[in-house]
Amino acid sequence: MQTVVVGASGTTPEDVIAVARDGARVELSADALAAVGAARRFIDELAAKPDPVYGVSTGFGALAVRHISPSLRAQLQRNIVRSHAAGMGPRVEREVVRALMFLRLKTVASGRTGVRPEVVRTMADVLNAGITPVVHEYGSLGCSGDLAPLSHCALTLMGEGEAEGPDGEVRDAGELLAEHGIAPVELREKEGLALLNGTDGMLGMLLMACADLGRLFTSADITAALSLEALLGTDRVLAPELHAIRPHPGQAAAAANMLKVLEGSQLTGHHQDDAPRVQDAYSVRCAPQVAGAGRDTLAHARTVAERELAAAVDNPVVLPDGRVESNGNFHGAPVAYVLDFLAIATADLASIAERRTDRLLDKNRSHGLPPFLAGDAGVDSGLMIAQYTQAALVSELKRLAVPASADSIPSSAMQEDHVSMGWSAARKLRTAVDNLTRVVAVELYAAARAVELRAEAGLTPGAASRAVVRALREAGVQGPGEDRFLAPDLAAAERFVRDGLLVAAVESEVGELA
Q1: 3-state helix, strand and coil shares in percent for the chain, rounded to the nearest 5
Q2: Intervals of the chain under pLDDT 70
Q3: Secondary element (H or E) of residue 307
Q4: Using an 8 Å Cβ cutoff, are 52 and 63 in contact?
Q5: What pLDDT does residue 149 have?
Q6: Claim to verify: residue 50 and residue 132 sit in the same structural domain
Q7: Are residues 274 and 369 in contact, defined by beta-carbon separation less than 8 angstroms?
Q8: Are residues 159 and 212 in the same domain?
Q9: On the CB side of 204, how many CA atoms lie within 13 Å of its CA?
């Protein structure tokens, strides 16, 4: 099993995904534990002084005006966790919670939050034991951190609340800790606050979305090329010199991918045959421009995610010289904006893919393909309703593209009077990514069938297209023929895209795609 080391060398997006999705083990480096211990000494010194310090010897939020006596400080830290673990709604996915926990561990191990080394070790132990706190859908405003989600995780460290064991069963968190020999944490000054105050949930979801969208943009380049091929379009619009004069890097990469897929095809270049076309429709001709703009949006989002990954988000924060300073770094705006930006790019990529699918099914625009790619049109309906499903997904994607970060609801008696709604932006982006996967799968299903029908008519598709069709059939997706129960085929096509088999099939013929 892979091991991810948390320490001075920094954390990569791949580290987060390995822990979140693949169950990689976490190991704390000696330098991380030393930094944690040094920062804690500063907190202990402040706690011993009579002066009030936010998070150490005061209440929280709008209640920060009260000075808390030493005898009540352990209770203060327990109480903030218990009271803030106020989430509601469905459970959040296991991979999201593991990303949330790991990213919070990464921050507290930075030596900027002031927790004790035993807290950091317990966080790592819980992750390595496969114990996943129950976190709920609603409870974060994306400011002052993902408060409720992180509180539910902190509650598990205290041995309270519910958590999912490595067997998938939800049980009492204290029982799970005991079974794995993990002692519950007794929180001291600053520690409850430090466990709650970060953008870890929205960042974890952003990192996973970036990984998924990277695969999906490549997948969409492939399906766009297959649709162009099936529609007997021209590949001349993909020439590198055309994209060099509008030098957006994503556009050039998308066009290059499509050219690789179309290499050796006998289907391209027939746009001047029976029904001459000067140009292909926008959904075909402008595929690199739309997918390329999405790729460039993704590149920007990755830059923001990497900056956030290098951050230590807490309030107050322990600086290297020992000062403990209040700040606003917990505000989720930088992450929230790119989450919303990606939702827009996701919706538009799905929209252009659906237009190509519709063109493949319309006998008036498909240049000789049978209506709805049906075996016996009229008796058979072919893929008519597959496009309905695709259209429904695209319609929802457009609703999901409405920005969450443009909203703000004041909280904490107007002390926290502007919030990012970044958690909400992340949650809807996850849905959008799932929907885009399905939209691309429907285009793949239609385009592959159309390419096969062209082959039956004597036109040989390119090697990459043949590899895709062959792999699809091996994955259980059936080819042209009479009507049948379509949902299993579409589900298999979705898995084919989601698991990266589409990209792998093409790369087996043409080499690595961008």
Answers
A1: 55, 5, 35
A2: 271-276
A3: helix 287-309
A4: no
A5: 98
A6: yes
A7: no
A8: no
A9: 32
**Residue 45, burial from CB neighbour count under 10 angstroms (0-12, 13-18, 19+):** exposed
Question: Is residue 250 located within the same domain as residue 380?
Answer: yes
Instruction: Check if 54 is active-site.
Output: yes
How many H helices and E strands in the chain? 19, 9
Number of domains in the chain: 2
Tell me which of 54, 138, 388, 445 is the catalytic residue. 54
Q: Which of 144, 263, 119 is nearest to 196 (CA)?
A: 144
Tokens for 296, please give them.
């460039």
The pLDDT tens digits of the residues spanning 155-174 come to 999 999 999 999 999 999 99
| Residues pairing with 6 in the sheet | 28
144 lies in the same domain as 265:
no
Domain interval for residue 148: 3-198
What CA–CA distance (Å, rounded) separates 190 from 195?
Answer: 9
pLDDT at 274: 65
Q: Which two tokens stand for residue 179?
A: 């079974």
CATH number, domain containing residue 370: 1.20.200.10
Peptide bond into 316 cis (omega under 30): yes
Tell me the whole-structure pTM to 2 decimals.
0.96
Task: Give 192's Cβ-side CA count (13 Å radius).
Answer: 27
Final residue in a domain of this structure, among 198, 213, 231: 198
End-to-end CA separation in angstroms for the chain: 29
List the structure tokens of 463.
């090697």
